[in-house]
Queue: 2 jobs
Job 1
Amino acid sequence: MNQLSLPSLKTVVDEVFREAGAIDAGNVTTYIPELARVDPALFALSVCDASGAMIDCGDTRHSFTLQSISKVLGYACVLECFDDETIMRHVGVEPTGEDFDSIIKLDRHKRPFNPMVNAGAIAVTDLLLTRFGAEAAERSLDFFARLIGKEKLSVDEAVLASEQRTSERNRAIAHLLRNFKILENPVEDVLALYFRHCAVEVTTCDLARLGMTLANGGCPPGGGDPVLCPETLRKLLSVTLTCGMYNYAGQWVFEVGFPAKSGVSGGLLGIVPGRYGIGVFSPRVDEKGSSPRGVRVQKRLSAKLNLHMFAPD
Amino acid sequence: MNQLSLPSLKTVVDEVFREAGAIDAGNVTTYIPELARVDPALFALSVCDASGAMIDCGDTRHSFTLQSISKVLGYACVLECFDDETIMRHVGVEPTGEDFDSIIKLDRHKRPFNPMVNAGAIAVTDLLLTRFGAEAAERSLDFFARLIGKEKLSVDEAVLASEQRTSERNRAIAHLLRNFKILENPVEDVLALYFRHCAVEVTTCDLARLGMTLANGGCPPGGGDPVLCPETLRKLLSVTLTCGMYNYAGQWVFEVGFPAKSGVSGGLLGIVPGRYGIGVFSPRVDEKGSSPRGVRVQKRLSAKLNLHMFAPD
Amino acid sequence: MNQLSLPSLKTVVDEVFREAGAIDAGNVTTYIPELARVDPALFALSVCDASGAMIDCGDTRHSFTLQSISKVLGYACVLECFDDETIMRHVGVEPTGEDFDSIIKLDRHKRPFNPMVNAGAIAVTDLLLTRFGAEAAERSLDFFARLIGKEKLSVDEAVLASEQRTSERNRAIAHLLRNFKILENPVEDVLALYFRHCAVEVTTCDLARLGMTLANGGCPPGGGDPVLCPETLRKLLSVTLTCGMYNYAGQWVFEVGFPAKSGVSGGLLGIVPGRYGIGVFSPRVDEKGSSPRGVRVQKRLSAKLNLHMFAPD
Amino acid sequence: MNQLSLPSLKTVVDEVFREAGAIDAGNVTTYIPELARVDPALFALSVCDASGAMIDCGDTRHSFTLQSISKVLGYACVLECFDDETIMRHVGVEPTGEDFDSIIKLDRHKRPFNPMVNAGAIAVTDLLLTRFGAEAAERSLDFFARLIGKEKLSVDEAVLASEQRTSERNRAIAHLLRNFKILENPVEDVLALYFRHCAVEVTTCDLARLGMTLANGGCPPGGGDPVLCPETLRKLLSVTLTCGMYNYAGQWVFEVGFPAKSGVSGGLLGIVPGRYGIGVFSPRVDEKGSSPRGVRVQKRLSAKLNLHMFAPD
């Protein structure tokens, strides 16, 4: 199909943003107490193209924490640092058909199904700790910053502290991973880094730039050298596509048709290969941990701009 | 990337065929007794492009039964006949993370996860029976023939009879679907049609043509009107991509990166959007029901011809 | 403890009956349509001692169908006819921790956990069919009659026909058992006999006599030769104790402390070794398939008459 | 049946001990490294009757750690300290049909099934910590000592330290219990007490005395005031009967027919109401965590001395 010119893209984006803003569903996450303090009415959308042109709607300057979107970045880092065989011993690439924090399958298979569920991301974090030791936090955040296209990332220390205090389920998962000899480092060290990644602050502009970088062969929008090797990108997009939306992943491919990743803080990252990076934020999330407004935005953009990977040209 | 010219494509295909022929793994399926009678040494590969040009290697004239590859065709037929909402009431679109004939998830969720597992394909078959009644077998086989590009399809009656006699597990699944009010028609009627679809005879050329048709916006290779509407195709390829290779689907997207479907008779259909249709046949299958030679062929073709959906250009 | 004299036993029984009659909970079973036609207000209690003395309260002449209580009788018959090893190949003796018609565990372990869940009772019925062939219905009902102390048992043909038509879940279980090579006979033959056993008509007096026979070393109340060998009795009471009340069995031993078996028609059989046989009937059952009034009656009788197996003397 | 006189009891016990000593099966537990250091050839049997008379065979002076047998004592303590309703909020009384350290059911039901599996015993330990605070270790060990009939119990500090270091799976379970709001105290505090209970040192004589006390209405063999109230005893024996042998419990009641509890150190406690207390020790255990020699001893004693609860007199 013929590319829409930027003005008309703006018209579509504005319209989709307005339409999705009418959705009144979902609740602010409360299991991490600090997340419960956010204004539920916040709503932002940014779309970035390969030239670096950015279309912004709503509260795009409000920053929020990455939460599970950090799983994409952590896995990218591991894919750059380790060979496939080593990674596969610690975490697979199969969708689970279960909730994001499921323990049942983990206990049966003794290896996390994929890096987009908590167990898998904890295993990924352990690999980073094994590789970088005391420098793991600094090194991984530098890597994340490079992907996002910022000098430096800040961490929401209040959210970090809140997660540290309350994440009994993640502790259970981590100890189970120790039991299965998946984790090499002490549970609290691994979780401290895992929660730090979750607590990285971003805006929808950051997500849109990140999405465009991943959509563009690893090259930052507007030009520059690739920040990821092609192999990493191929694997990363594959796993994000099949596992990124948890047990909604099949429906997501069916309806939207490009890789995306949601976080319980209400962020949603969309990656449209060769086309756009999309960042949405709305802190009200559904029982699967995705923002209804964010999901609607991505669905409508996919339909209106013909972004589905199997859409006819 | 620049298209390889057809002669060099032939070189690649020949090389991949020769290399995969060295694999000595898997066993002929025995749970359907009639399938056990096949010569395990048979091996064939056909690759078709949009022009209709076909590259053939090995026993490409040997016909075999579709088995689970028929699930793609049955679902296509249902997508053309029913609205999404009706279909979704009978079968979802999520990968299961379980074996192809799993009952556990079905019993918990009371609806088949997707149309590529047995439970889902049985639900799909029931919908066809509801729609076409006594003409369902004729109508669905006509539809299959149109997709494959043949006048008429034949059915291997010995295999059909063999499955009819031995498929206690599918009977269990079908009665459970009756229990959940998913099936409207009598179990034996539904299974008779389901087994008939599984027993349709094809060659690798047929699969390659079918694959190219699905890869080409529904248009038969060499030209002609589309046999499927674009919406059907988008949904069909999405579900085939995420669910077609069962609990190997994530690994498949990771490594191969285009939709494919395997059958326990040893057939394997590959669909490379905009590029190729691929048919492989080798009757020795692994414990997940896929042919190791077929899997290897698709992996190598993907790598050598850069067919992965997220491969750099 | 000193036995209560019969008059004071009657006082206790009357009081317990009156008290339990005040319970307003549970619903008449509807998944077997014919069972839904019963008067929900019916309520009966019979207690029999070793001398054959019977205390009756309420609608003790109303007959109802055995349903799952027949599982005790079928298993008794099998224990008399086969050696342990053969029986154990077809059905185990472990509580499941799952619902009475669970399929999950069956699919994992490929053998029914115990004869008190549907899968196990269907396997038991298959053994009877293997042993007695065309005479299985007559022979097993004669055996049941002998245990209950009647010349002949009648079958509620309307309930039988109703179950035959609607039991898709049991059909699924039976086909799965065929798939696992547990069943040797055709599914419909096995289910026909299984449903026939379920549809045997009894009164609470019959249950109380049956219970007393099992409580009395197999000797009919009032005297006579034992109708079961001691080994059968030991095994039968053991399995009834640990598995008879499904996933309420642990709670039952904890609170009541003697073997019992419930049926979805609302019957409840209590067996107090050396003391009493108890029959209760109230057609309103809870979500676990037991009658709340029946459960209350047994609990109160246990407490007031000190019937718990681990009660202090 | 008529009681065997003590001399002939000794003959039976000696014979059973000799016979069971011929069993060459099972392995010393290695997942707690310190347990792996034991001499696998050790074998001891003690049988105590109500008079306090004790029959000893083999290495009855060798002490070993209670491990899971401590679950009986911990639950007894909780039954004496809390009302049923409070206890039931923290731990149920149903057999699981799963392994002793299963997580699957816990995650589904969000409450441990019973106090004889690890999750349930950890919940029980938490209740003791809530009740006794800093004195919990001293108070509970004093209570254990009273039941066993000793002044004071010693703890194997090497085994305790070994468990502390290695029990990642129990940590996972405990954090999951925190996640479900079952545990009120910090995980490490609860586990420290739990492991301490597991590491209490006993001999087979101690187990036999303990068993006889529980078999004798809570009265120590040879006379003395009861150390448990009748209600506690009734509940404790019920749960030990239905859940004490894990997913072997049904088989145990079927074949042996009295309450028993095994530990991975190789100890096995048998409680024959009104008759005997039995202690066996053999450090080689099977995959279900029970000693094959211990199991054989209990089975043979049950058969030869007619100890099954449903045995004919």
Job 2
Amino acid sequence: MKKRFALPLIIAGILSAASAVAADDPYAKLKQNFQQLPAIPPIPANNTQTPEKVELGKMLYFDARLSQDGTIACATCHNPALGFTDRIPRAIGHGAQRGPRNSPTTLNAAFLSSQFWDGRAPDLETQALGPIQAGIEHGTTLDKAVATLKSFPEYQKRFADVFGGKDPVTAENLAKAIAAFERTLITPNSPFDRYLAGDEQAVTTQQKRGMKAFVEKGCAGCHSGPSFTNGGFFKIQVPGSTDEGRYTVTKKEEDKHAFRVQTLRNVALTYPYFNNGSVDKLDEAVKIMGREMLKTELTKQEVADLVAFLHSLTGEMPKFNYPVLP
Amino acid sequence: MKKRFALPLIIAGILSAASAVAADDPYAKLKQNFQQLPAIPPIPANNTQTPEKVELGKMLYFDARLSQDGTIACATCHNPALGFTDRIPRAIGHGAQRGPRNSPTTLNAAFLSSQFWDGRAPDLETQALGPIQAGIEHGTTLDKAVATLKSFPEYQKRFADVFGGKDPVTAENLAKAIAAFERTLITPNSPFDRYLAGDEQAVTTQQKRGMKAFVEKGCAGCHSGPSFTNGGFFKIQVPGSTDEGRYTVTKKEEDKHAFRVQTLRNVALTYPYFNNGSVDKLDEAVKIMGREMLKTELTKQEVADLVAFLHSLTGEMPKFNYPVLP
């Protein structure tokens, strides 16, 4: 039996079978709508990424002394244990005050074309200084934050080593270091990325059906590109929200209640959803998106398939040791 | 030159030189007052330490959902980035309320004979449930905390795998898992431990002088054993404190304003000091201890030597990856 065919014939047979499978695969063409998450996000020309800067940025990301009462760090609301978000509807900051919006994840934020729900910061460097100064977040000033850092000889040395210059402990360099750390918070190797890379077993049939629905229903129109957002701003009305969104930045009537398209990378980990965190469950969020953005009442099966697909976008969490702060 | 002495003579010479050094070493005998930190702390017979339990305990240690508003975890006040404490005078918990006492470190707490400043918990298991129920800390109830855990299928599965039984998600098992994780928070390999193990270069001459002062001035009387505390309770009056300490537990007059002798392991990282966190600097804390407990005004040199010695008690921080919580 084993010697019935000559080897070249067997190989030819295998190859033709493989081609046949590809041709029959109803999902093969759909895949072309998607892109893998790159291992490295865009890096600005004026903020080179060095291991020492990343390490310093990690320390600062975890340093609660950059707040008025010493209890709020970046990691408080963008908590590594909770998908780099806080899993509560709206952020709770200085003095237990509750902010107006849900904390977005820091994971893959480096790929976004703007930061904050309303896109008011063009990059991670600008974003980093926002919460420090926000009364309901860190509740301090940049001058105080810089003075705090200067009070630690270890920070003085690290800033000098990383940035050089006569007075290296500045708000600008603080922002650069935090941004450099955040550019390492990338989540590669999700089941869907492995599927795009050729591994047919990496996702389930239901997840493939969800991918199909994602394209055919129109989700992929805005949730496109490697981080599943085209960076655009669109009006959306979610339960309980009166937030004027992008309008607060542009003061243009057409931006009222518009928010930037959110990344869907790791969306299974970044609940609750929407600008006010009003929706706890992913299936409910998918239904609302269908209704609000696609003017479609998705079927139960479509919702289940889409949710399964969205779960395939959970990548590997960044691994790093805790910093030991001075 | 090389062949001037026969080999046995050279060896004899080396041995006698080594003995001479040991005999001349004024610190050799002082070392006998100290013990290295064991790699493994005492483990209670009814809470066996398994990797799965430790992993579950780590998740629970970081899980802020075990609090009323979802923002306070064990790791909030016992923060791994800040020496497993919070580096503020008195803990800030639920609703930004400030507690009455300084957060003690979780590092090496497994070696202590009682927990909390007033020793009201006999072990880590009992300790773990205190802050969850304290109105000014996690601000919730054990029933609510258990209900929260039960709402996550992943926690249900992990508790079942670790503890078995019909209803494994209980407050008792929650406490056991957290305690098991905390028993891994040991800091071996401090310079002083390496010195005790024979490495003469591991500490400086000033640190050896500090060790000498530590014994001769009397600090070692109470700060004894591998974790530098004999577990006793002693009256102490630190700046600004009206705290009745151990009295609140025993209601015995002699326990008024008494607190358990604190561990000095990693004391350079666990500032600010004392029950109300009123002292920020280690040299000031040493001076106060001299005055309050030893009735001695330590000289500037003694204080400097003691502080140098205390820095030699900083061990290696535990290394672990962040949990990814459900």
